[in-house]
Amino acid sequence: MKNTNFSLVLIFSLWVLAISVHGQTDTATETTTDPSLKSQFQEMIDKAESYTEYKVIKRTTLNEFYGSVQDSLSANRSEIGSLNNQVADQKSQIKQLSDRITSLEEQLAKSEELRESLSFLGLNLNKTTYHWIVWILILGLAIFGFFAYTSFVRSNAITNKTKKEYTTLETEFDEHKKSSHEKQIKIARELQTERNTVEELKGKLKAKTAGK
User: Fold this and answer.
1) Are residues 153 and 91 located together in one domain of the fold?
2) Among 50, 85, 113, where does a domain finish?
3) How far apart are CA 200 and CA 194, in angstroms?
4) What number of CA atoms fall less than 13 Å from residue 102's CA on the CB side?
5) pLDDT mean for each 10 residues of the chain (212 residues)
6) Containing H/E element for 27?
7) DSSP secondary-structure letter at 56?
8) Cα(65)–Cα(67) distance, integer angstroms
9) Which of 56, 76, 138, 188 is geometrically suited to a Cys-Cys bond with 49, CB 3.0 to 4.6 A?
10) Could you tell me the pTM of the whole model?
């Protein structure tokens, strides 16, 4: 009797274990395997002889059912292993896709950075800094151009004034030179007149001396 009770407990435990393990697999397999075990179990109970409130099951029948349970468990384990492999493959694919997305995001960030930056004198600058530098250079060139133009205008005015003063001085010098030349001619004429007068007086004096 104890052996019979133990057998029943063992059968029930194996049956529950088979159903619980098989419940974690695909639904399609569940519909094809569990009914078979249930029908075998029910058939085994129906064919078993009754002894008071217990059922007496043949050892061969119990062994056959146990073999069916083992086959079902083996199939379930194999399917679970296959599903685990599929899950591992899917995790690997997800990781690869995640790495790919990360790489694409990094490339996109670099592309955005390159799009928002410009090369100036071998340095990569963002557009805001580049625009500030360009405007500062333009302003500096404008200020330099203004001072250069002012200096040119001033130099040109000084040059024109100098030329005008030089022309005035040159004119005055020419007039002075001409006046001096005329004075020299006049003085030379007066000197020659005086010489002639002296010579004439000398001649008269000499004539008077000779007449005495």
Assistant:
1) no
2) 113
3) 10
4) 6
5) 48 52 43 56 65 63 74 85 90 90 86 66 68 86 91 89 88 86 86 85 77 62
6) helix 27-47
7) E
8) 5
9) 56
10) 0.34
Q: Which of 113, 139, 162 is the last residue of a domain?
A: 113
Residue 118 lies in a domain: no
Structural tokens at position 110 = 């670099």
Q: How far, in Å, CA of 151 to CA of 42, rounded?
A: 117
Total tally of structural domains belonging to the chain: 2
What's the confidence (pLDDT) of residue 143? 93
Residue 12's domain comprises 2-113
Please tell me the distance from the alpha carbon of residue 77 to that of residue 33, in angstroms, as a whole number.
13
Do 68 and 36 meet the contact criterion of CB atoms below 8 Å apart? yes
Strand partners, 124: 119
Sign of CA dihedral 119, 121, 125, 129: negative
The whole-angstrom separation of Cα 19 and Cα 13 is: 10
Look at strands 49-51 and 54-56 and give their pairing: antiparallel
Residues 6+ apart with CB under 8 A from 45: 55, 57
DSSP 212: -
Look at the alpha carbons of 133, 138, 143, 149 in this order and tell me if their dihedral is positive or negative: positive
Structure tokens at 66: 């146990």
Q: Which of 16, 19, 3, 9 is nearest to 58 (CA)?
A: 3
**Are both 48 and 140 inside the same structural domain?**
no
